[in-house]
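In practice, a research group might receive sequence data for several interacting partners and want a quick structural hypothesis before committing to experiments. The following worked case mirrors that situation: the sequences arrive first, and a predicted assembly follows.
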Amino acid sequence: MSPTVKLLQGNEACVEGALAAGLRFFAGYPITPSTEIAEALSERLPRVGGRFIQMEDEIASMAAVIGASLTGAKAMTATSGPGFSLKQENLGFAMLTEVPCVVVNVMRGGPSTGLPTSPAQADVMQARWGTHGDHPVIALYPASVPEVYEVTIKAFNLAEKFRTPVILLMDEVIGHMRERIELPDTPPVPVVERQRPTVPKEDYLPYDNSQDVPPLASFGDGYRFHVTGLIHDQKGYPTSAPAKVEALLTRLQNKIQSNLDEILMWETIGMEDAEVAVFAYGATARSAVRAVRIAREQGIKVGLLRPITIWPFPDKLISQYTSQLKALIVAEMNLGQLVDEVERATKGQVPIKRVLQANGELIAPDTILRAVLEVK
Amino acid sequence: MAVRHEVRLSGSGGQGMLLAGIILAEAAILAGKNAVQSQSYGPEARGGASRSEVIISNGEIDYPKVTEPEVFMALTQEAYQKYRHDLGPNALLVVDESLNLGDDLPENVKVVRVPIIASAVETLKRPIVANIIALGVLVGASSIVERKYLEQAVLRRVPRGTEELNQKALELGFQLAAAAVGGNK
Amino acid sequence: MLAEKYLRDAMMPHIWCPGCGHGIILQAVLRAIEKAGLDQDKTVIVSGIGCSSRASGYVNFDTLHTTHGRALAFATGVKLAKPELNVIVLTGDGDALAIGGNHFIHACRRNIDITTIVFNNSIYGMTSGQYSPMTPAGKFATTSPYGNIDRNFDVCELAKAAGATYVARSTAYHAASMPDLIVKAIKNKGFSVVEAISQCPTYYGRRNKMGSAVDMLNWQKENTVNVAAAARLQPEQLAGKIIIGELYNNPAPEFTQQYEELIARLQGGEE
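A structural hypothesis for the assembly, expressed as tokens:
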């Protein structure tokens, strides 16, 4: 075994990916099942000249990450559902002020304290609509330990490139399970750095609407710019002038919507001739792969649609197959969240079978297989 | 088609079943195979029954949980009762000698019932290494990974300064397995 | 000139009411920054939400106007990520001690090198006059129409107890001496708190029949005793008086410095 092959937890792979992407600041608060991320970074970050801090609460962790990012540091926090709720106000601040950062939510059963040590996928709508106001969201959701590593790097890349928080979702199964992973010496995807201003300091517009993503200066570099959670003009100063408000909020939408090709990621299996598809993500997709394979062995033409980017919702992943499908099965560990997005994307052209489970257990392959046999 | 081996290790919380599962999975990876390890991870992590599951394959592993254990190890009666429900025919059952297995085992289950806890307490005077003895028994009786990779994995994962103790524990486990099933080193 | 150097013309006029003490206090902060010789490009001003927190927008530094109560948490991220920056937090009594109370005591405990100026006008001015954790008992606000039955914090005592290493108090009336206290707060390598008592004639003053802004400034003059003078007075002579001046100065190991030492130790290969 080469020295780079390891047995790692999803949470540990997230740490490796973050460090490979250049993470230099982590603020967090302990919460199961994400705590291993904080623990590992408390050990690793100071060794690479980065900083770790355990803040007094979840809200403060999100705030500290934004403050650190404004100094130029790649910054991250990690939490689970209840903590993710607490972070939402400051997450909204980062969306509006366009501060790059990565927010990890390792999902557990809920609502409330719920099932702290059991998996769920019930925060996928919170990831989209948890904070207030109108804004786009990028949320990624890997399904294996090696993929956590790679997708974490991509999360940082998207955050830095598009000057936005990126939400990295896992479920307890993916976060806690250990799996074989090969850690390369250099990151498998090029690491992206945020664009810095090149204009004279007095001409700097931190919220320049003439480009999708204005360059971001760092505190301490002499640009002396203002960052406010109030709606602001191109200079960053508060404004309520309708034209300026609209220009900013429209650009926030556009910078994501006009770059979907770069943001949307998915995997399909056996879709070439599939008449039935299973839509599943995260750990549930692992069960779906098994179900699809067994069904294929029985001669059923079934395939898998697995989004890795869940927000913006990958409509195209669905729509490109609607004409060939007789039925679409959506399996998720909640009582119906992304299934409504799938339904919207099919425009009513494909009947949908819901395989929903919110009992603290990973949906079993048999459960999905039964649904395949029912609709085939 | 990939061959998938499912192993469940169970005992009381604090008995080191989580670590045993990690070591077994790592041994498989050292042997060039694929492996996934997971655990039921209750707030009752200390005391109560706990389990660790390992899937070993020479190919891709999709569903990461055990559905029908090929090898099931239980160190306590409570863990045995709680986690034996999906035990299939022809499985290997590795248990501590203190356990009462009842008379309703599936057909052709091979039972290796040896003094794991007592050996840790009486022979090595260190109850804490019961999990490593148990691993030795499990691998000795199942040959699910080669012994040399298990030894490497144990040394990588146990605390520094305890290597010798754990090597002894592992050897003891293999001896117990050999005595029970006759060979299979 | 101070105003030209430190104020953002484009942000004027400011939102503060005529007679508000906040402008006086902001001037004292800017005088202190000048006097302390801080590099304008290496100084970050962080604020929360409220009347006082609008100050960050008015001044020509890197400035961060955050969410309600969270200024210290954002500032902690700024300071820890780039310790060479001077970080000054401008906050109010509601911002720092109600919604931000937890961050306040933990910033004190950590002794992180941040200087915090608490503009204390005893009221939520931005939302037109609700009582705050520093509205004295018995006083009136839109949400204490029968007189406030909540007890108020003494922010200086709170800061000391929680671990701040420099604590001082002044008032808008004492504008001339306030900058020296803020300079010392800035120079303290650790967490410093300066309570700056401000007047809000619009809401607090009117509701509590305290008269004009000038009357309120006079009230500040008459109801305060300098800490040196207070030491010579009997407790009964000090009853109802507010002690101003440097209340506490007791340096202790600073958080980011200790973290830098940890990095140096680990990167030096000692562990």
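Before designing any experiment, note the following. The mean pLDDT of chain A is 97. Residues 145-162 of chain A form the longest helix (18 residues).
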